[in-house]
Amino acid sequence: MITKEDALHKVEEQVSKLKRLVDQAFDEELPIHEVERELFTVLMDMGLMALTAHVARQGDGNVGKHLERGGETLLRLKGQHKRCYRSIYGPIDISRYVYGTREAQEIKHVPLDARLGLPAGDISYVLEDWLERMCVKDAFRDSVDSLVALLGVRAKLSVDTAEEHCRQMAQHAASFRASQAMPPAREEGPLLVVTADGTSVPMRRSLDRSLDPKEQHRVPSRGSKGEGAQKYQMAYVGAIYTIDPFVRTSDEILDELLRKRRAKDRPAPKHKHVWAKMTRPGDDSKKGLLTHGPTYLFAELAVECHARNPGKNKQLICLLDGEKQFWELQEDWLRRAVGILDIYHVMKRLRQAAECFHPENSDEAKRFVERYLRTILEGRVGTVIRSFRKLITTHHLTGEKLKRLTATITYYTNNRRHMRYNEYLAAGYPIGSGVAEGACGHVVKDRMACTGMRWSLEGAPAMLHLRALYLNGDWHDFVEHRIEHEQDALYAQAA
To answer: Could you tell me the CA-to-CA distances from 181 to 120, 270, 271, 469 in Å, in that order?
Structure first.
């Protein structure tokens, strides 16, 4: 490693180079973008030299032949040990003395590392922040290529590095969420809304066989059969937010759903938080509530509900799509909530029913949907069920049409107690779970289901954690939390 004086001298050389570059650009009438690129290169070199000078100024970490740490006497081991620090400006080789109980044994303390606050690995926290900030938005390969293009070959990054640091950072997600303060009460609305949905993630073919078959499925690709088919696993996305009541009529809902006339004064969700979970594999001794994705998700939803509504003065609402296990989990974890069946799924079933009697997207099909949707919004679900049963007989439905309409009848019958829309609208409750469906697309699909992507059982949950934190606007605070926790683990004095 060069001395502090040599490093500072090189910084001064770079300052002179900057002046010459500006003068040359003026004389040669260079376009500003060319000057900008040249300046960036010189400034990066200057940053590397300045950072090297900062490291050199701290010395070599020699604090004597012995030191006491955590009630243990440590010896200065022979010779200086070298490590590489890869900064955004480029790599720096750092030589320093280390301490342990004896030679060839574990290094117990490195004073210079502690003084500098070096990370556990060789990549700086800043470079890691920039890299993973890109990775949560784009593919690992594209993110690495983009950052290398920006910083130059000095970055020396790889896809393996990006994936490994994704997993390392995600290990701090749970403790960060537990440390987060809840939104100020004055900024919250009187309705506390919870919603959840599920979507699939393409997995590598080494998918663990110990998982519940319900958690995974295969989609055959062209020319593939059985084990050669693409494997998927479910990811479960939850969202929680508060909102002001918004009283509406059935006509207003019909205008919004069928004629795309969005109400101008509709209140916006406040302090929306989203996150996602996947079921993790484990042996029989480890399987339990916290390894099952949906259960883990609802447990965290319940914890945040309590934190954001400790006095239970807000009306709790749970918006779901009709999946049986979600309603069972709502009963277990959010029993106090008013359960509401998502109106978009209700309407989807109506459209399928309409196609049993009318051509798809025909005027007759649209009138069918509007008629029965109005009846449902008015709270007369039983009327719709009875009408559909009569239609089966009067139209002598058979085959696929009979199967489709029967499925709709069963869906409405099973979810009837969550379809009191006349009461919900009068109270100003939301009736659509678009937030959850949008979160599934935004958190999961937009990053994890792009062409050619395949995920491991370790990598997929890690990316879901980081992407949710990023989309929640918590990235900066999370990075600071991760640094603080790792620094404490590395350098905090033992009691």
So the answer is: 28, 15, 12, 14
